[in-house]
Amino acid sequence: MASSSSTSTWSFLITLICIFLFMGLSYAGDPFKFFNFEVSYIDASPLGVSQQVIAINGKFPGPTMNVTTNDNVVVNVRNKLDEELLLHWSGVQQKRSTWQDGLPGTNCPIPPKWNWTYQFQVKDQIGSFFYFPSLHFQRASGGFGGITINNREEIPIPFDLPYDDITIMIGDWYTRNHTSLRSTLLAGKDLGKPDGVLINGKGPYRYNDTIVPDGIDYETITVHPGKTYRIRVSNVGISTSLNFRVQNHNLLLAEAEGSYTVQQNYTSLDIHVGQSYSFLVSMDQNASSDYYIVASARFVNQSQWQRVTGVGILKYTNSKGKAHGPLPEPPQDEFDKTFSMNQARSIRWNVTASGARPNPQGSFRYGSINVTEIYVVQNTPPQMVDGKRRTTLNGISFVNPKTPIRLADQYKLKGVYKLDFPTTPLTGPPKMETSIINGTYRGFMEIILQNNDTKMHTYHMSGYAVFVVGMDFGVWSNNSRGTYNKWDGIARTTTQVFPGAWTAILVSLDNVGVWNLRTENLDSWFLGQETYIRVVNSEPTNKTELPMPDNTLFCGQLGKLQKPQDISHATSMRGNGSKFSFMIIMLVSAIFVVFQ
Fold first, then answer.
1. So what's the pLDDT on residue 29?
2. Strand pairing class (269-271; 259-266)
3. Alpha carbon separation from 232 to 93, 120, 145, 404 (Å, rounded)
4. With 70 as the cut, is the pLDDT of residue 3 above it?
5. What's the CA gap between 272 and 280, in Å, rounded?
6. Residue 585 confidence class, pLDDT cut points 50, 70, 90
7. DSSP reduced 3-state for 245
8. Signal peptide position in this chain (predicted)?
9. In the 8-state DSSP scheme, what is residue 582?
10. pLDDT band at 67 (very low <50, low <70, confident <90, very high)
């Protein structure tokens, strides 16, 4: 018979194990996913010309981050570039965690040869996104990769589970690296026509011996006949809208940047800079030959832009030969953007499907919420501001402060920025300022994006999914609200605004932080076409914003607080991970004591 002491010891141990298992189950719903990113230069020749590109772990593009709703994501970044670096997780809403957004308004840059660790949760999100370097025009040299956020197993998806998942990065490309392109812009010049379009970092298949030189490495995607694949496509380029199509295959649109869509078939879809979609593609052809995958420039003279076309290969495992003949035709509307706008309007929210949560997406009835704040945000073509060629929003060309906005608020610094971004365009001469929007926590903001430029723009808002409720040609007026879609307008992070047209978005300001509103056209963004929206809870609490991370970097007015490179700080973690580790240590210690 066991002694009373032994019995009580075992009872204690069993109780401790039960507590541990309970806590473990509590954390099991929010597991950690770890990534190590070494960001460096490599030599590559995607268009047949040797050049320096930015790689992640030696790969261009970088690896796809495959995570699940509510995962805690930890990314240790080693900057092996010769200049500062920030990585931005475009479309990840960083709920309660503006500190991790990877933009100069929220983060000090990672110096060369330094490590720094991002830690954020993909809270209540699903969908297709991408990451990229956000400083110094670096995205023009690469450093980008896909982000896939999968549904939790208990949440149904609104289609049969695909056979496999494929990520495709498309984008315009120059054979000059980002430092050369940056110098061109700073000299007051346009970048000119791109040298080509890449598909997953590779140049075009030689579909035409005259247009495509020999020796170009091209992307080949191998598939099984009769299977359906989910193909996620992101335009990670600089400024060119691209039409995406797969020869002889329908693209069944299923999701756009975190929202399941009403499922519709397209023979091709315009994907503008910064946008991401996922399609269900059935491999239902006879495989008499391989098939072209095409990404070609939109709204241009096709005969002059033939070289600015990305071509890859879709190869069935039972294919009987190589792809041949002309490429599938793009839309024939160089001077008429009506088809493209109608296509954009046709993308609608699937209100009955569950997203990241069990309840239907449409249970958030955005159309019945009263608007509390209205901003008409207008761009213009590049113009001279203070003797420099700049771009503007509402007459203001944004200047990034040396001290990030969020950090300035944390330390109550004065004069870093102004909360005076105008609600309508200024009437006087343009100016260069750090002027931002003062958003109201739990307010409901209407933003009208008016494109007075001569080229297509896409606009992105960090921290949120916005409801795209209307778009049309001409100048927006109060009467335009009569055309708004108040029921199933798509919720996404990036929306197109056609030249000479407007797009209206609605956003519920429930995420505390400092959030970037910008054009995704990299040249215009670099020259000042952005601002930030500051959302503050007047009653600070960890429930609406997490504390400043232990490994925060300091710069600008706070640079004196920055210690020399300290890897222990650079890789410090916060939150559940350390608690979970503590539990394990406690359990092991208890078991050790029992068996002494």
1. 55
2. unpaired
3. 19, 23, 12, 33
4. no
5. 19
6. very low
7. strand
8. 1-28
9. H
10. very high
> Following CA atoms 509, 512, 513, 517 in sequence, which dihedral angle do they give, to the nearest 10 degrees?
-10
Q: Which letter does DSSP use for residue 138 in this model?
A: G
Percent of the chain with pLDDT over 70: 90
Lowest mean per-residue pLDDT among 335-339, 349-353, 533-537, 557-561: 335-339
Quote the CA–CA distance of 398 and 64 in Å, as a whole number: 32
In degrees rounded to 5, what are phi and psi of residue 127?
Answer: 125, -170
* This prediction's pTM: 0.91
| CA nearest neighbour of 132 among 100, 88, 172 | 88
pLDDT band at 578 (very low <50, low <70, confident <90, very high): very low
Is 220 exposed, middle or buried, given 0-12, 13-18 or 19+ CB atoms closer than 10 A? middle
Closest CA to 131 of 185, 81, 177, 75: 75
The span from the CA of 554 to the CA of 559, in Å, is 5
What's the whole-number mean pLDDT along residues 422-426? 97
Closest listed residue to residue 163, CA positions, set 225, 230, 222, 254: 230
Please, what is the Cα angle at 47 between 44 and 52, to 5 degrees? 30
Q: Is the peptide bond before 61 cis (omega within 30 degrees of 0)?
A: yes
Give the pLDDT confidence of 68-121 residue by residue, as tens digits: 999 999 999 999 999 999 999 999 999 999 999 999 999 999 999 999 999 999
Per-residue confidence (pLDDT) for residue 30, from 0 to 100? 82
Rounded distance, CA 487 to CA 130, Å?
28
Can you tell me the distance from the alpha carbon of 454 to that of 86, in angstroms, rounded to the nearest whole number?
31
Contact 13, 594 (CB under 8 A): yes
> At 582, is the pLDDT very low, low, confident or very high (cuts 50, 70, 90)?
very low
Widest CA span of the chain, in angstroms? 93
Q: What is the mean pLDDT of residues 393-407?
A: 98
CA atoms 149, 153, 157, 163: torsion sign: positive
Q: Do 139 and 173 contact (CB within 8 A), yes or no?
A: no
What does the alpha-carbon distance between residue 572 and residue 93 come to, in Å, rounded to a whole number? 22
Determine the Cα–Cα distance for residues 48 and 75; give it in Å rounded to an integer.
Answer: 33
The Cα–Cα gap between 214 and 24 comes to: 57
Edge-to-edge strand list for the sheet holding 51-56: 51-56, 32-44, 72-79, 115-121
Q: Are 260 and 495 in contact (CB under 8 A)?
A: no
CA–CA dist 104, 102 (Å, integer): 7
Residue indicated by tokens 């949560």:
357
Residues in the chain: 596
Residue with more model confidence, 469 or 571: 469
DSSP assignment of 461-529: ETTS-EEEEEEEES---GGGGGG---SSBPEESEEEE-TTEEEEEEEE--S-EEEEEEES-HHHHHTT-
H-helix segments, 150-258: 178-186
